[in-house]
Amino acid sequence: MNISNARRVRPSAEAIDALRAELESRISEKVSANDAMRAQHANTLTWGLSEPPDLVAYPVSTEEVATIVRIAGAHRAPVIAFGAGTSLEGHLNAPFGGICIDMSKMNRIVAVHSEDLDCTVEAGVTRQQLNHHLRDVGLFFPIDPGADATIGGMAATRASGTNAVRYGTMREAVLAVTAVLANGEIIRTASRARKSSAGYDLTRLLIGSEGTLGIITEVSLRLHGIPETVSSGICSFPTVNAACGAAISAIQSGIPVARIELLDEMQVKACNLYSGLDLPEEPLLMLEFHGSPQGVREQSERFGEIAGECGGGRFTWVTQPEERSRLWQARHDCHWASKHLRPGSDSIVTDVCVPISRLADCVELTKADLIESGIVATIVGHVGDGNFHVQLMIDRQDPAELTACDALVARLVHRALAMGGTSTGEHGVGQMKRKFMLAEHGAATIEAMRAVKMALDPLGILNPGKMIPERAPER
Amino acid sequence: MNISNARRVRPSAEAIDALRAELESRISEKVSANDAMRAQHANTLTWGLSEPPDLVAYPVSTEEVATIVRIAGAHRAPVIAFGAGTSLEGHLNAPFGGICIDMSKMNRIVAVHSEDLDCTVEAGVTRQQLNHHLRDVGLFFPIDPGADATIGGMAATRASGTNAVRYGTMREAVLAVTAVLANGEIIRTASRARKSSAGYDLTRLLIGSEGTLGIITEVSLRLHGIPETVSSGICSFPTVNAACGAAISAIQSGIPVARIELLDEMQVKACNLYSGLDLPEEPLLMLEFHGSPQGVREQSERFGEIAGECGGGRFTWVTQPEERSRLWQARHDCHWASKHLRPGSDSIVTDVCVPISRLADCVELTKADLIESGIVATIVGHVGDGNFHVQLMIDRQDPAELTACDALVARLVHRALAMGGTSTGEHGVGQMKRKFMLAEHGAATIEAMRAVKMALDPLGILNPGKMIPERAPER
Fold this sequence. Notes:
The structure is a homodimer of 475-residue chains.
Chain A: H1 13-26, H2 35-40, E1 55-57, H3 62-75, E2 79-82, E3 99-102, E4 109-113, E5 118-122, H4 127-134, E6 139-140, H5 151-156, H6 164-167, H7 170-173, E7 174-180, E8 186-188, H8 202-206, E9 215-222, E10 224-225, E11 229-236, H9 240-252, E12 257-263, H10 265-275, E13 284-291, H11 293-309, E14 316-318, H12 321-327, H13 329-340, E15 346-353, H14 359-373, E16 376-382, E17 387-394, H15 399-418, H16 437-441, H17 443-456
Parallel strand pairs in A: 1-3, 2-3
Antiparallel strand pairs in A: 4-5, 5-9, 6-10, 7-8, 7-9, 11-13, 11-14, 12-13, 12-16, 15-17, 16-17
Helix pairs in contact in A: 1-3, 9-11, 9-14, 10-13, 14-15
């Protein structure tokens, strides 16, 4: 029976002990059944319930991951890969129990090929660890989702972040992965060649599959030279529409912006309050340019002209690191500043992505909806991609607020879909956005995804209860 | 029975007539069984045998494609999508007969969204047709594989070409596709949003699947602003190694080269002979830069310095269109100039791709191998990606030359694989490179590809005999 169709009945303590003993006889590290450890490996960062796994295992190699998966298959036990635990949509919950595979012991940087601008790392390496390692060779890994996530987790959730507009997402950044399939086989999806037309793109199939098609154990990544010069700038606009217009013009005119972030007026207000800033309480664009000294000057000046034409205020830009940090202070503080708007609140963060021409409409309608709902919320957008986040400050103990929040998110998603967008630009599906998948993709596409899932994981042991909706209603 | 496991027995004339009549009763255009038409829709551009389909159909809509596929499924007849017929590895042959789906009547540009820098086109639109259409809105579609291929064919083969180093390949250029699956269902793989983390990446799964997982009928593409200024330049180097070193340095230092092409000395010699040029008969790099006037000047000058440091000659660069054409004359003439080295010969073109750090070695070893074989051949490389083409001038009627050519290609592929590369950077697998797939990917990865194929095409009607090797030897 496919696990995800089974109702969860927690196995007996004896069964769990037996599974644990079998695992420990085959891998080098202890396997934990401790309640605190289990709870730490369940969902922690969203509003869904926490559903801990039965066991937490710490493999030290791809072969050990394969061993765990084979044992899990024999026991029909779910396996859930765990990176840094920073996913936001209940990706890590274990609604059917099973084994959490914590990748933290697999944190070796396997190779850096500086002439090829690539590297290979184990899945448990974090992005900050990698960038620290790369600094001496003048290279960097650009994808920055905010949290210090692991490279494996970022690949599994197709993460991106502020500078995707220039450097792409994990979809573009990953050259190849090593993964363990549900049958315990180890595959390498591609070579380190920059391009290939040799066979199905299993790399991209695994990226964003959230551990439901395989467990990513190693990742080969494209790297970039650390830019000679970085300039950072900010500019206020009277409306979200004007700010988005400037972003569109900048991209259309070919300015290679590295980051272009929108803060709505509520977010700006939150940052003023939290950090003692005196930014005009209007929509704010924050930009970054990468290049030669002359290049970033030209880009910055051209953007300043565009901002002016679009009704924006003065575009202030700087290149010294300390000045850049000060100017971008508001962006770094967004999360905590928002929470500070309602002290003691729980913060829920969700995201959608629309074609950039619809971004202003989508943000404005969402702001109106937020105001009507009475929920305190801020909006920050990666506007170059049409992607924005809504951070909702609620009291998770209040059922009425949870219901209102749920309804708001549903309206947000359906608004984005109606505009030709997607239910999530970068956070992923997990448990929380699974209910929108049919509306987003349609039945035929979902059935194609299900066929792929069934082909690669016929027993349904890989992260069950996530992403693909069940064929029949679950309850 | 899976069609690709069946030996080809050409159906009776009656059976073909019945299939043709059924198709014609359900779609708007005539279905051809004419020998000349069938031959035109088989393999024409490589050294493999030509294996024509039984019938050629011309759908005018996605729904008609779905109708054809459903009828084909009921008859267990193979279906092979046909764009412009410019693929090089026997992709279009019909070793088990069946229906060629010629996409030429599906050549509408469905929508251009200039604010979003994207468009949606039917699969039969060619890249030149699209760029002609886009010129007035100041946008362009950058992928240029040389031939005036269709967008559907380029997506299906994961095509790229000279400016992939800056703009990526079809993998990056496609936002979403509409496709007909083997069961006749029509799917849309994604929205027009620039980013999404909502579900499996069926877009990338179909791109490069060569018609074996679905028939692509519509494609949504990323577009780019036509650059304000383009500069073109050329520079000779004493060795391939020096030329590759300059390419690596340029990319490492972050110069956003738009094209960087290598011609080996034999190719330069061929161009001198054919076009009356007087280029030094040494390895030649040809570059193109896109940007603002100041930007391309800075890029060109910086590259000139790098070329000098790497032992190159003077870097000559120009920005006027006529001068650019003149300077790049040699690149445009490569194919015909090479053929002219051995008048009356047939020309076979193959490609591999390696990590850029291994490119010089791979090219040099390949040149030595070519010299030893006595076959006249030229090499042109998209060096920014580590991808190069070998054009072999042979007599297809001479079995000894065919055997030598076959052995050369096999050695080339195994050399690229041993260097961490791939058997094909952009031409694809088709029939001709299928025998290298196991060596490239290993058995576990091939079995995963096969599982996906079986899940989406259980009857094996979609372009059978291509890409994935049979489990048991075919003969």
